[in-house]
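Lab notebook, entry 182. We have the chain sequence and a SMILES string for coenzyme A, and the next step in the workflow is to get a structural model of the bound complex before anyone spends time on docking refinements. Request logged below.

Task: model protein plus coenzyme A, output C-alpha cells.
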Amino acid sequence: MPARDLSVPEDMETKRLRLRRARTRDAPMLFRAYSSDPEVTRYLTWDTHGSVDDMRAFLERAHDAWESGSEFVWVIEERSGGAAVGTISVRPVGRRAGIGYVLARDRWNRGYMTEALTHLIAWLSAQEGIARIEALCDVDNLASQKVMEKAGMTREALLRRRMVLPNLSPKPRDMYLYSVRS
Ligand SMILES: CC(C)(COP(=O)(O)OP(=O)(O)OC[C@H]1O[C@@H](n2cnc3c(N)ncnc32)[C@H](O)[C@@H]1OP(=O)(O)O)[C@@H](O)C(=O)NCCC(=O)NCCS
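Result returned:
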C-alpha cells in the first residue's frame, strides 16, 4: 500500500502551529532546539546528538524516507514567530500508521503536542488506506502517555522488554502500546 496511496501534505496548520515537511537545512535549528538536550532525548530511540552533523544525517534519511513513502517527518513551527520547536512523524506500514514526536523542552506543557497529534490523527483518520494509528511509549514517560490519551488514543498493551532506549539503559525497556482506530 500504502504510502503510495496516501496523498501526504507537506504543510498543515493547527490553531497555534504549522507542520511542514522537514528539510536538511533545518539541522542547526533542530539541533539547538532539542536533539542536543539529554532531557528531551531520554525516552527516544536514538542517542542524544553530539553535533549538528548528527541531525543533518537524520534529516537526510528523513528526506529519502519521504521520497520512498516509508516515513513522513514534519517540523513543528510556532505560527507566531516561526520558531522550529519539534518534529512529528508518521510511518505507514500496511494499513497501520506509527506515530512519533518530540518537542523542545522550553515549549513543554503548553498543549502543543496534543494539538499537533490531534491534528495528525484527524488527517490519518480521513485516509481510506489507514485502519489503525499506533505509538509506543516507555512506561515511565508520563507526559507522552498523557498526550496520547488527550488526543484520543487508548492504552492497548504492555510490551515487556520491547525496545532499547539508548539514553536510559542498554537493556530493553517495557513499553506501552497505544492505538486509535482510523
Ligand atoms: C512528550 C512531549 C512531546 C509532550 O509535549 P507537550 O507539548 O509538553 O504536551 P502537552 O502540553 O500537550 O501535554 C502534556 C501533558 O502531560 C502532563 N505532564 C507533563 N509532565 C508530566 C509528568 N512528569 N507526569 C505526569 N504528567 C505530566 C502535563 O501536565 C500535560 O497534561 P495536562 O494538559 O493534563 O496538564 C514532550 O514532553 C517531549 O517532547 N518529551 C520528550 C520526547 C518524548 O518523550 N517523545 C515521545 C516519545 S514516546
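Notes for the group: The mean pLDDT is 96. Worth checking against the assay data. Residues 52-68 form the longest helix (17 residues).
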